[in-house]
Write a structure and sequence with these properties.
It is a single chain. This protein is an alpha/beta fold and 266 residues long. It has one domain (9-200, 226-255): Rossmann fold, CATH 3.40.50. It has helices spanning 18-29, 42-54, 69-83, 106-134, 162-182, 203-206, 209-216, 227-238; strands spanning 9-12, 33-38, 59-63, 88-91, 144-149, 187-194, 249-252. Strands 3-2-1-4-5-6-7 form a 7-stranded parallel sheet, sandwiched between helices. The longest helix is centred in the middle third of the chain and has 29 residues, at 106-134. It binds beta-D-glucopyranose. Beta-D-glucopyranose is lined by residues 96, 151-153, 195-196, 201-202, 205.
Length: 266
């Protein structure tokens, strides 16, 4: 059976856990060969690569710190070496270093900005160069597709997380400005803005019944998201089904951005 992403190559950064892991699984199921970037959890990335290959797909795990230009370059070299090029790049790596504002260290500020924002800059810059080098391919209408992983916190302010919210607010204009610049070359750049997705990054918010009840008050749709919800959105955004979608943020958040506090208030 023909699949949406057959014969395409996708690179997913931060694929060893959480949303990146779910996106990698979904893209592989949709027929893409996947390059699974990881920062430190080699075991999880290798295991996922093996699972995908056992199911008849193609996968390669590659270590790289996305905030380091030299490592980003070698990650793209690894894509070319194994799969000749890359068609889809999901700039997903991200982390939180939360603290009250006055106590936030410069180190924690810089760590979050360098992974979440500079990491996406370096990854997508290398992607644009690779799409140009390789030229059009019959596998897709676009020259290449970039998906930036944002967050509902590109629009929802988040006390106690100013570094994270600043990085995601930055992604909003980064993505749109880049989309505007490269759209004439038929490079499609979009973002996904997940809400509360059940992953290790936010275990404190769903790990106990009490925390979960509190969290669900923020989600009109009444459930926490799963990595698969983001995976399915990524498949669509990476496929020709969304060929006319350019410079958009797709919120996948169960309605978290609908100001649920106003449902019976105001
Ligand atoms: C954060 C999570 C949080 C969610 C909703 C995400 O971007 O990484 O920790 O649960 O936004 O607030």
């Amino acid at each position: 059976m023909e699949k949406l992403l057959d014969n395409q190559v996708a690179l997913i950064t931060g694929a060893s856990s959480g949303i990146g892991y779910g996106v990698a699984q979904a893209l592989a199921q949709a027929g893409a060969a996947v390059v699974l970037n990881y920062h430190s959890n080699a075991e999880a990335a290798e295991k996922l690569a093996e699972e995908i290959e056992r199911a008849g797909g193609f996968a390669l795990a590659v270590k790289a710190d996305v905030s380091d230009p030299a490592q980003v370059d070698s990650m793209f070299d690894a894509c070319r070496k194994r799969f000749d090029t890359v068609d889809i790049v999901v700039a997903n790596s991200g982390l939180q270093k939360d603290s009250a504002f006055a106590e936030m260290t410069l180190e924690d500020w810089q760590k979050v900005l360098s992974t979440n924002l500079t990491g996406q800059f370096l990854t997508t810059q290398a992607a644009v160069k690779e799409f140009r080098r390789r030229g059009p391919r019959a596998v897709s209408k676009a020259l290449g597709k970039i998906i930036c992983m944002s967050s509902v916190h590109e629009v929802i302010p988040w006390a106690g997380h100013v570094n994270y919210a600043a990085s995601k607010g930055g992604i909003q204009m980064f993505m749109k400005s880049l989309a505007q610049e490269v759209a004439p070359e038929r490079i499609r750049v979009n973002s996904i803005a997940p809400g509360a997705i059940r992953t290790p990054i936010n275990k404190d918010a769903w790990g106990t019944q009490e925390a979960l009840d509190k969290l669900l008050k923020l989600i009109p749709y009444g459930r926490v998201g799963e990595a698969e919800d983001i995976g399915q959105a990524a498949v669509w955004l990476a496929s020709d089904q969304s060929d006319y979608v350019v410079g958009t943020t797709l919120f996948v958040d169960g309605g978290m951005t609908l100001y649920p506090g106003f449902a019976d208030n105001g």
